[in-house]
Amino acid sequence: MFHIIDDDEYLREITTVLLESAGYEAIAFACPLAYLDYVNHDSFVLPAAAFTDVRMPGMNGYELIDAVHEKFPELKFVTISGYDDGNEAMQKKACHFLLKPFSPEQLISIAEAVIQCDVEGPEATNPTCTGLTGEVRPDAWRCPLNCVECGNKQSDSVPGQSG
C-alpha cells in the first residue's frame, strides 16, 4: 500500500490511478494536515511508502516528513516536486526524490524498488533504484536507506539509518 499527499487534485488522482493500475493499493490525501490526522488515528495502516508533494499550503512536504517521523521514523517517503530539491530531500531522509514532470514508468519503478526493499530487508542491493534519482544532481544524491544502493554505488550508510 502507498499513501499519496498532494494538494493538486489532478496529480493526486493520476498518481493514485497509476499505482493502482500497477496492482498497488493507494490512499490519497489532499493536504498534509489531513494526512497527519490519519497518521494519528487508530485506523492508520503503515504503507510501504508515502509519496508527498513538497510545496503545499499550510505545511510543506519536508515539515510533514518531520512530523510523521516523530511517530513513525521507519516510514519511507518519496518527495515529488517541480523544483530541484534533491539535497533537502536527502537531508530529510526521503527515500527518493521524483522531479516533475515524471513518467508513469518512473513512478512505478520507484514503487517497485520500495516494495523490493521491504521484501529483501536491510541486506538488499536493489539495482532498480539506479537511474531513478540520476536526474537530480547524481553527485549529491544518495538514497539514505541502507536497503538500496542508488546511482553512485556508495556502500556507506547515513548515520542513524537502518533499512
Q: Explain this structure to me?
A:
The chain is α/β, with parallel strands linked by helices. It has a single domain (2-122), classed as Rossmann fold. Helices cover 34% and strands 13% of the residues. It has helices at residues 9-21, 32-39, 61-71, 86-91, 104-120; strands at 2-5, 26-29, 49-53, 77-81, 96-99. A 5-stranded parallel β-sheet has the order 2-1-3-4-5, with helices on both faces. Strand 3 (49-53), helix 3 (61-71) and strand 4 form a beta-alpha-beta unit. Residues 126-163 have low confidence and may be disordered.
Summarize the SSE layout with pairings:
Elements: E1 2-5, H1 9-21, E2 26-29, H2 32-39, E3 49-53, H3 61-71, E4 77-81, H4 86-91, E5 96-99, H5 104-120
Parallel strand pairs: 1-2, 1-3, 3-4, 4-5
Rg from Cα: 14 Å
Q: In CATH terms, what is the architecture?
A: 3-Layer(aba) Sandwich
Largest sheet, strands/sense/barrel: 5 strands, parallel
Q: How many domains is the backbone divided into?
A: 1
Q: Largest sheet, order of strands side by side?
A: 2-1-3-4-5
Q: Helices and strands: which structural class?
A: alpha/beta
Helix content: 25-40%
Text of the CATH class:
Alpha Beta
Shape: globular
Please report which band the strand proportion falls in: under 5%, 5-15%, 15-25%, 25-35%, 35-45% or over 45%. Answer: 5-15%
Compute the number of helices: 5
Number of strands: 5
Mean pLDDT: 76
Q: Secondary-structure element sequence?
A: EHEHEHEHEH
Q: Look up the CATH topology.
A: Rossmann fold
Low-confidence stretches: 126-163
Distance between the termini: 18 Å
